[in-house]
Design goal:
The chain is α/β, with parallel strands linked by helices. The chain contains eleven helices and ten strands. The structure holds D-glutamic acid (DGL).
């Protein structure tokens, strides 16, 4: 069995393109329909009810475009809305939290795991709960790092300011001597050099987007949903607001030129 319908991916904005980056690498035959809710970003500082409402609108929009699978690239939406969406949709849904937590447990040598993310992700306790389910003896320390998002969006991910802020945010995780750190936000892979420098070379850094791409490949295979590879894949990008910064920002998250059409839509 195989299926040439596209994979739907949504995020609060353009950060989810750090997840698409891994999908393009690992699943090159798959078509992708991406929705970035750029008019309402950030989700990370909003209430759980609002994030769930936005996530439902995002997912229904993608379902309306005939996708075969929905990927929640946004950590905040995965943490707060994955269960809700899985219960409502007839198509399979996968967020970044489960693959990210599983990868951290697999990679951790001593079970001393840290997680950083938005306020919404960290206060939901989703990563913490899942890690403990998979490894009951784990010690897990969570730390919100809200200023990392604007630093990445302003092209300042590797600036001296980012290094200073990282020192402050990551002090608790250094003190806890974590051996593995989950980069639990779409934007944080861009800050990886600064986080690596602050945490030292021995700490394993986990990119949940990468872990999701691995898990998605297995799920598509299990469900008989892989693309046939007989047709060239297409990539379609939707955003709810398009600013002058769109192109450079999108390409910095994607790590490549943006190929495919870009359209603006209204979800409300
Ligand atoms: N995409 C969000 C996440 O991964 C970060 C940006 C936001 O707060 O919306 O949690």
């Amino acid at each position: 069995m195989s299926d040439d319908r596209p994979i739907g991916v949504f995020d609060s904005g353009l950060g989810g393109l750090t997840v698409v980056r891994h999908l393009l690498r690992l699943l090159p035959s798959e078509s992708i329909v991406y929705l970035g809710d750029t008019a309402r970003v950030p989700y990370g500082s909003r209430s759980p009810e609002t994030v769930r409402k936005f996530a439902r609108q995002d997912a229904y929009f993608l379902a309306g475009h005939g996708v075969k699978f929905i990927v929640i690239a946004c950590n905040t939406a995965s943490a707060l809305a994955e269960e809700d969406l899985a219960g409502r949709l007839a198509i399979p849904v996968l967020g970044v939290i489960k693959p990210g937590a599983a990868a951290a447990v697999r990679l951790s040598r001593g079970g001393n795991i840290g997680v950083i993310g938005t306020r919404g992700t960290i206060s939901s306790g989703s990563y913490q709960r899942l890690v403990r389910q998979l490894l009951p003896s784990a010690r897990i320390t969570g730390q919100p790092c809200p200023l990392f998002v604007p630093l990445a969006e302003e092209g300042a991910a590797c600036s001296p300011a980012a290094a200073l802020i990282a020192e402050e945010y990551l002090a608790l995780l250094q003190a806890a001597q974590v051996d593995t750190l989950i980069l639990g936000c779409t934007h944080y892979p861009l800050l990886e050099p600064v986080i690596r420098q602050t945490m030292g070379s021995k700490v394993m850094l986990v990119d949940p987007g990468r872990a999701l791409a691995d898990q998605l490949r297995c799920r598509l295979e299990e469900l008989g949903l892989e693309a046939t590879g007989r047709r060239p894949p297409f990539h379609r990008y939707f955003v709810t607001d398009c600013t002058a910064q769109f192109q450079p920002l999108a390409e910095s998250f994607l790590g490549a030129p943006l190929l495919g059409s870009v359209e603006q839509v209204d979800l409300e």
